Fold this protein.
Amino acid sequence: MEAFDVVIVGSGFGGSIPALRLAGQGRRVLVLEQGERLTTKDFPQDWGFRAQTRLFNAYTSKDYRVFMRYGKGLGGGSLIYAAAMLRSPSEAFEFRDKTGYRVWPTSVTRQVLDPYYAKVEAMMHISRASWADVPKAGGCFAMLLDKMGLTCDRTMYPIVDCLQCGFCMTGCPFGKKKHLGHNYIPQAETLGAEFRTGCKVHHLEKDGEGYAVHYADVHNVAQSVRSDLLILAASALESPAIFLRSKPYLSGLHPQVGKNFNQNGDVALVFLLPEGFPKAYGYLGRNNAGVITYAFWDEHRITIHAGAGPPALFAALDVVREGGRKPDVPLGLEFKHFLKQNYPDRLISSLAIGLVDGDGEVSVNSQGLVEFDVPMNETLKAYIDRVAGVGRRIAQETGAELLRTSDESFEHGDAHPLATVRMGDDADRAPCDPNGEIRSHRNIFVTDGACIPGGTGVNPAHTIAANAERIAEWITQNR
Ligand SMILES: Cc1cc2nc3c(=O)[nH]c(=O)nc-3n(C[C@H](O)[C@H](O)[C@H](O)COP(=O)(O)OP(=O)(O)OC[C@H]3O[C@@H](n4cnc5c(N)ncnc54)[C@H](O)[C@@H]3O)c2cc1C
Ligand code: SF4
């Protein structure tokens, strides 16, 4: 069987960062990535289904209430993300769940991650957007907050000379948004790391002191490679699925693998702007619309950032009016006319992100395919009600109107899966130790969103990246 010093599954933030650091030590590194090697010419300005399925894998929860997706391709989510790269507030690391358990290891704090955040910022050319870079929708959101006497911060991005075309989430066709294919991946390749695309890992198997990795190659032919050290970084939806498919071949797998699924407290809020406000031009500008408010962090532990929403987003969100106003169903002629009248000038999207318990679960079905569940329990319901309360307060105090974003409540999923093979101090509750090593199997590390143990309070990619830098450094020094 072909052998490497290190095999890494997935080439997103969790995979490409350790690939560079371990190749830098002269180790033979192989990265297996199921997606394609895409370049700027492959990024369509197209929100259609066919274009999307080339760039994303998407799943709905077992009860169809929650939708989750992740970017596939060499570079993972960095290809299609909206590119907000924010450090998590200190308090996120101190979060305790309803049982009183501190979900982050005590050794991993904002202060500890700060040098690793700085490393990622330097590698990816991350800087704060200027006001000229903030899309109109972001400006309108900031005006709403200003009307309440509250403030917004301009967001940090790895975007240079943006043309404000509004297609970051289908990949930047102009190469302005820096993804891992601009920095970590080519540098790792220069140092000898191999990135094999079109290779989907099915399961792992114990092989002497090391592990065999079984995958289907780009021609769908079964292949196997082996290494003594493995890194799983296939996203918080797929990393646990690979472990769960490996159960017959990895005895004693930690029983918490797949559990504690956290959707980062995402809740989609859409506002109808007050009459007389400037036009939002909802389809224009970077998709993360440039501003975030921490004004509700102290009281509610939520942040809210503005989005520049493409038409497809509004068609997919079940936007309806509250209080008996029509349209009160997301279908039909009234709904169509409402959207026609108000999009793109008066409707703006935003996303609340907050600290919430991870009560969901990723499992695999009888064919080994990913399934997930986010139970609408009392804790989640109370959290969504609290976020909606903040949205209603914004509406009341500014003359805007808050719209519901799903038939009965508010959308609470989409893009930020976390915690399904989480690290933590408690060996019973956390499959991975604070260094990302799965407790049940020496030399298997998890470095992606799956090992982030709880909500990040803001968009999570920067924390995933910084944590991957931290774990990679530990591996280079200790294994
Ligand atoms: C539309 C969208 C917008 C987003 N915008 C932002 C944003 O603005 N800011 C932010 O912080 N976050 C954003 N995110 C979230 C961000 O993209 C993720 O948090 C981040 O990419 C997760 O990193 P990761 O390393 O965990 O996994 P990923 O980046 O998802 O990488 C996992 C990789 O593993 C590969 N893979 C999966 N299964 C297998 C397998 N079996 N075999 C081989 N390869 C496999 C996948 O193809 C993928 O390339 C966004 C996400 C989406 C979907
Ligand atoms: S808005 Fe800017 S970063 Fe986004 S796709 Fe267009 S040019 Fe690229």
Notes: The chain has a mean pLDDT of 95. The first strand starts at residue 2 and ends at 9. The chain is about 25% helix and 20% strand. Residues 378-398 form the longest helix (21 residues).
